[in-house]
Amino acid sequence: MAKAQILIVEDDGILALDLRNRLVGLGFGVSASVPSGEEAIEKVKSSPPDLVLMDIMLKGAMNGIEAAARINSKFDIPIVYLTAYAEEKLLEQAKLTQPYGYILKPFEDRDLNAALKIALYKHKADRTLRASEQCYRSMMDVMDDAMYICSSDFRIEFMNPAMIKRTGRDATGEACFKVLHARETKCPWCVWRKVLQGEHVNYELVSPKDSRHYHVANSPIRHADGSISKHAVFRDFTEIKAMEQHLQRAQKMESVGVLAGGIAHEFNSLLATMLGYGEMLRVDIPEGSRPREYLEGVMEACYRSTDLVRQLLDFARTPEAGRKPVRLAPIVEESIQTLQSYLPANIHVHRNIEAASGNILADSGKIKQVIMNLGINAGDAIGENNGEIGVHLSEVEVDDETASREGVRSGTYLKLMVSDTGCGMSLKVLARIYEPFFTTKDVGRGTGLGLAVVHGIVKSHEGFITADSEPEKGSRFEVYLPVVEN
Amino acid sequence: MFSILIMEDDDNLRKMLKAMLEVAGYKVLEAPDGEAGMKLYRLEPTDLIIIDIFMPRKEGLETIMELRRDYADVKIIAMSGGSKKIDHDFLHQSKLLGAQRTLSKPFERQELLEAIEELVG
């Protein structure tokens, strides 16, 4: 192993020479020997030693303590003071420069040897510790996940930059529940008790502060004094959660569609039988008789059932036949006119149809049905109050991300937006609106098939539909249909 | 007298159709599926065949293909209660395969009689 190189800073030439001899005798190397603070700084710069042995009282403008302070500010080289004085005041000053040792003259070789070896060893250990700290610190700094450490009395002890970004400030020292979740008291889901017992606890939560979904991993940190801090990492999975829910809904709609299609098929066979026999009975039973009256009641119920099943099938099936390239704008205009005749006078329809819109491959009757169903729902949502329904048609680009989320191809789409200023919907209702037979309307006012049919038709046109709503603030439906080449 | 073969697996519906067509003056033969229907037709060909799309053993579409292959002039009406699988409009397919007319269940008596008239009248 190479000898440790020592820089001697001593203004007394004889003492300096004596020191050099003794160091060499003890097995150290001497990189240089200089008489002043200024020269010491220069030497450290030109050929950095492993340690500086610094006399405190130096001739010239700069004493040893000042020279040590300057060296410390720029270099990571341990300094050991050498002095004949041990005044309290001097020691205090020297302490501020964080020396690795303090040797009082006169000294024995073995004292010098021990002081230098310990200083070199301590410095090496400090350097390793600093490197390790730096390593952990940079891990904390680059972490995308927000992380914090807090004490058992819910005080934040540390926040990484991601957590500082999330909370908007470094809130070290403040109460965790307040800073992280905007709560006035301890969080009901707090796992401190388990963490105190040494357990690692993971859970998922929607933070009341920002309504985002987090996966939180909690671990205990044991301190030397026996106390425990809680280390918690917040992984934001709001987007993944949204995708998951979207996929679940899509799968649910698909299976409901298959089910509805199957049921409708069976019912149609039964209805065909009932209607067929009924029509044959009509031939035999004279009009105006009581049995004929009863028969007409049965037939009426059959017709209504037929209509209901037809709507179910619209939800479930893809009408490949009957689709041709059409311009959407005239269909929308026509539908709005029909819609207005259904709506009471208190509801105003505001339209904004952009002229330059491409063709879509569509069954125009089905598209009218989509607009009518959305429009009638909007009208029902407004009710007897004054309100407005907005119908907006525009051409938009659907990017890859949206396309893959919605299970369609990316490209140019026509966006048909139907909005209203009505009563709006809760998130719970919003999640179920396309399910067949799900309705919030009064008994007899809605079958719960309107939006299911809309969903089915839009899907069968290789498009997608989105809905936004807030209670008391109205709703907005956006239907996207792919533009085709002429 | 014109003769009609009905292939339909729903007994009730088949019986009703038979009664309805007999009242209308047709001779009616019946079979509960495509396989039995084909056997019967080979023994006793009729002027027209009414075929349900979804049947056990031999399905409607397969039966239509076989009939078209073996009897080029056969007159076929396909009927269905809608599609069991999403993304397929079977009636549309049956037309492509050779059924001259299609009927969606439930249909009115008049619709059925008109379709038959059109093909054999």
Structure, described:
The complex is a heterodimer of chains A (486) and B (121). Chain A has helices at 13-25, 37-46, 64-74, 88-96, 109-142, 161-167, 176-181, 192-196, 238-284, 290-316, 328-342, 364-382, 400-406, 427-430, 450-460, and strands spanning 5-9, 29-34, 51-55, 79-83, 101-104, 146-150, 156-159, 201-206, 213-222, 228-236, 324-327, 347-353, 359-362, 387-398, 411-420, 464-470, 474-484. Chain A starts with a strand and ends with a strand. Chain A has 15 helices and 17 strands. By secondary structure, chain A is an alpha/beta fold. In chain A, strands 11, 12, 13, 14, 15, 16 and 17 form a 7-stranded mixed beta sheet that branches. Chain A has a 5-stranded parallel beta sheet with strand order 2-1-3-4-5, sandwiched between helices. A 5-stranded antiparallel beta sheet of chain A has the order 7-6-10-9-8. Chain A is 46% helix and 23% strand. With 121 residues, chain B is α/β, with parallel strands linked by helices. Chain B is built from 5 helices and 5 strands; from the N terminus they run E-H-E-H-E-H-E-H-E-H. Chain B has helices at 11-23, 34-43, 60-70, 90-97, 109-120; strands at residues 3-7, 27-31, 48-52, 76-80, 101-104. In chain B, strands 2-1-3-4-5 form a 5-stranded parallel beta sheet, sandwiched between helices. In chain B, helix 3 (60-70) packs parallel to helix 4. The radius of gyration of chain B is 13 Å and the shape is globular. The termini of chain B are close together. Classes of the chains: A alpha/beta (486), B alpha/beta (121). Chains A and B meet through helix 9 and helix 10 of A and helix 1 of B.
